[in-house]
Structure prediction request, 318 residues.
Amino acid sequence: MTFRASHLLGIEPLTQDDIRALLDRAEHYVALNRGPSKHAEVLAGMTQINMFFEASTRTQASFELAGKRLGADVMNMSMAASSLKKGETLIDTALTLNAMHPDLLVVRHPNSGAVDLLAQKVTCAVLNAGDGRHEHPTQALLDALTIRRARGRLHRLTVAICGDIAHSRVARSNILLLGKMENRVRLVGPPTLMPAGVADFGVEVFDDMRAGLEGADVVMMLRLQKERMDGAFIPSEREYYHRFGLDAEKLAHAREDAIVMHPGPMNRGVEIDGTLADDINRSVIQEQVEMGVAVRMAAMELLAENLQLAREEAPPHG
Ligand code: NCD
Prediction:
């Protein structure tokens, strides 16, 4: 059971075995991260560059910490201050960085597909930290690990993904992963926030929270991504909370032991009740953050191993 890819650009190309290999390896890092000494030197001597072309708090911090715990030299490029502002293209920036011999590039970009394009131009491993509305693979993996630990399995579960599905790469990567692992996925939200072509996703679609949550094992809430909306998709935030915001009353329709998830950042009182988000008996939001570091350590370790193998087989010229 091995993961043989050169990059982690999305969930789409992964097999069940790839997903299991990544999650099993992450378990090892969950244990390490809970101990007093959090270092494993598997990336010692390697260089990791984080390029975030979009704002990020937890994902960037998580990748940075993951790299440092694995012993890599980690550099955070401040993309706001970079030459992109002077008109340099994404590809030129990538080629410039590539000439500095990084081993791992972690990239977040507002355009769907930008990270794939970049991966074709560089000679190191690339991890997608979120590209537009397309994919956010490490988020789906950390969600999967959180679910597997909380529910004891990652198959034959009913997972309700609720809210702004249309603008969400988190939803897209989760739909792909949960589908591959043979779960039942429901999308719950107003029709204006459902993506085009949703009928082909192999999911059930609901525009009523109570019906959509009925009997669910997992309730995954999403942020209203206002920065990706060009126009009004909802009548008002108040109205949205009333119909689609998760509170104890709506959650009562899910299974008694259903867990509540949110990738963050949260809009309390818009998509989720603040008290519920903080309820440690229902909410696994903090566990998601914890699993994030472990999953990123696992993904970077496995990609670095594959990179080493590829370099041994075809040493670079010059
Ligand atoms: C998500 C993202 O950036 O796609 N956040 C995250 O990575 N934790 C979700 C969001 O921005 O709402």
In short: Residues 58-59, 130, 136, 139, 169-170, 223, 225, 263-264 surround N-carbamoyl-L-aspartate (CB under 6 Å). The chain has a mean pLDDT of 94. The first helix runs from residue 16 to 34. DSSP finds eleven helices and nine strands in the chain.
